[in-house]
Amino acid sequence: MASWEDGVRRVVPYTPGEQPKDLHIVKLNTNENPYPPSPGVLAALSGVTEDSLRRYPDPAAAVLTKTLADAYHVSPDQVFVGVGSDDVLAMSFLTFFNSGKPILFPDITYSFYEVWADLFRIPYQKQKLNADFEIVRNDYLKENGGIIFPNPNAPTGVLMEKGAVRDILRANPGSVVIVDEAYIDFAPEGSSALSLLPEFENLLVVQTFSKSRSMAGMRIGFAIGSEKLIHYLNDCKYSFNSYTMNQAALAAGKAAAEDSGWYRETVRKVIATRERSKKELSALGFSFANSQTNFLFVRHEKAKARDLFQALRRAGIIVRYFDSPRIDDYLRITIGTDEQMDILFDFLKSNL
Amino acid sequence: MASWEDGVRRVVPYTPGEQPKDLHIVKLNTNENPYPPSPGVLAALSGVTEDSLRRYPDPAAAVLTKTLADAYHVSPDQVFVGVGSDDVLAMSFLTFFNSGKPILFPDITYSFYEVWADLFRIPYQKQKLNADFEIVRNDYLKENGGIIFPNPNAPTGVLMEKGAVRDILRANPGSVVIVDEAYIDFAPEGSSALSLLPEFENLLVVQTFSKSRSMAGMRIGFAIGSEKLIHYLNDCKYSFNSYTMNQAALAAGKAAAEDSGWYRETVRKVIATRERSKKELSALGFSFANSQTNFLFVRHEKAKARDLFQALRRAGIIVRYFDSPRIDDYLRITIGTDEQMDILFDFLKSNL
């Protein structure tokens, strides 16, 4: 090893789901939305001018924070935007989890949490989901350096009741509590922790344009919290990269955020397909927790998940398989269009 | 202070140059290119499809790294891309400067270096430029945890000879040496440290689309180095955010990188205006080092920089003033179009 390598930060990076180039594949592996974004988004991209390309974007991304503030009835000073919710979450780990005390998150959850903790050398303790894949509220009432969990959780799809979220916040005035709501728009209305913001200065709610708004390709995520939290987060962001949101993302994001009707309609379609898929998969011998997201996390009574994953792959249907303890018997299946799901069901009917 | 604030990372962020909304202002404060990017860039943005918006982008940004690799005659595995060179540099600080030993950079330089070091708690020692605002090669031959400097340096505009860069690399096999070449395309051909790459595995050269390619608004920066360096950098990047380059940036970046003729022509025009500006400003009583960039760092024999900055501002001409030791008598003036510079010269002729 060359001597310059002594000072290199060694990490084991997160492995994202595959992005195959073949567009004929039925792609049910990365929880993308099968429907297009608001037509305003393409129009906004075509409207980007030479002058705005030439110039630095607004570092405060005001056009986007303002539109989101209006949509969620908060002050623009309560909104932070980033390059996907991963950027928002990475910056939040860097900003808020510096006490030296271990942070808490579930053992079965978004696998990036562990990666960020390792990257920034943040100690952590994983808390075991119960046998029904539910987050156990009481596990988050002990001393900690911060708390993060997705709600609904991924890859399980299970939603925590808002009462339990409130209990966790009440017990933790000394920590920042991050509720990662990447999938919240697919859950019943009123499930979001956003309504708890007036009560808790230390609550950060993170959401994304990647799922419900069909814009994974534009990398837009956001956080809403108290002005104090957002101020700290911006200080770290401005110490990392002044201008994270390019002119195209700002324009496209604004157009999407102004057209809430569009995404609510696509979400309605995805939910209808999800509920139909639950019935189909049940009839085929699969079991699963009650997902409130745009994916199902399923186990078959007979077929091994890994074998099924590979058989589907050979048939041009890609789902997600995690080779990890407690979940290596499961597949995570993104809800696609009805037509895509029928291809999946037909394959399973013939091959199980 | 609330108890949750104990674990918050406190930093003093970098202050970017102002981005006024009034388009009638003569904006010579953030080193943007006054000419538009390649026409292919707008076309690429209009060509972004609904399907690519809906899907995650390629995390490896292969379409862009491949085009850059071809343009610079290196392997795609030697190229890293990020959200502007700030993102590339931030990630490089995080990845490479972990030895615990102080890193070295000039006292008068890009002020973000100090901000990144503070953010990541990296010790550093600033090395004094000499009276002619040159980087002193011998200051970089002592023990260190890493070296970074811009070449040409900013805000001075001064270029270091490649022989001196090589000397620094030869003396530092135990550190990563980052040459930040944001302005290199405005320097004489052959000035880049890229030609030293075959000799030094620990050399990272960072460049940007923001200046010569007129694309500050799209946030595209890149690094070229040994495959080993790029591999480590990617590991940290994938531990921070899998997908940093959105579909619009990938498409626009590819179009720009394929049209080198376009940016070389705009650079030629900027250089011609820069050389004419040197003469005009000289005749007006300004002195300056010999800038090889798209800006001039000037001091007037009589007028105080701060007063001049404010007078220009009132006249609708924005330049950059740094209220810092050793340079508080200077203004940094971006090279605009000939017409913009004439407005500046006319004002100065009437008011000095």
Automatic annotation (TrEMBL), chains A, B:
Gene Ontology annotations of biological process type: L-histidine biosynthetic process
Aminotransferase class I/classII large domain: residues covered: 25-346
Coiled-coil segments: none
Pfam families on file: Aminotran_1_2
Cofactor(s) required, per the database record: pyridoxal 5'-phosphate
Originating gene: hisC
Protein name: Histidinol-phosphate aminotransferase
Key words, A-Z: Amino-acid biosynthesis, Aminotransferase, Histidine biosynthesis, Pyridoxal phosphate, Transferase
Molecular-function GO terms, alphabetical: histidinol-phosphate transaminase activity; pyridoxal phosphate binding
InterPro entries reported for this sequence: Aminotrans_II_pyridoxalP_BS (IPR001917), Aminotransferase_I/II_large (IPR004839), HisP_aminotrans (IPR005861), HistidinolP_aminotransfase (IPR050106), PyrdxlP-dep_Trfase (IPR015424), PyrdxlP-dep_Trfase_major (IPR015421), PyrdxlP-dep_Trfase_small (IPR015422)
Pathway membership, UniProt: Amino-acid biosynthesis; L-histidine biosynthesis; L-histidine from 5-phospho-alpha-D-ribose 1-diphosphate: step 7/9
Claim: Transferase is one of the keywords in the record: yes
Modified residues (N6-(pyridoxal phosphate)lysine): 211
Entry superkingdom: Bacteria
Organism phylogeny: Bacteria, Bacillati, Bacillota, Clostridia, Lachnospirales
SUPFAM superfamilies: PLP-dependent transferases
Family as reported in the entry's similarity comment: Belongs to the class-II pyridoxal-phosphate-dependent aminotransferase family. Histidinol-phosphate aminotransferase subfamily.
Subunit structure: Homodimer.
Reaction(s) catalysed (UniProt annotation): L-histidinol phosphate + 2-oxoglutarate = 3-(imidazol-4-yl)-2-oxopropyl phosphate + L-glutamate
EC number(s) from the headed UniProt entry: 2.6.1.9
CDD domains given in the database record: AAT_like (cd00609)
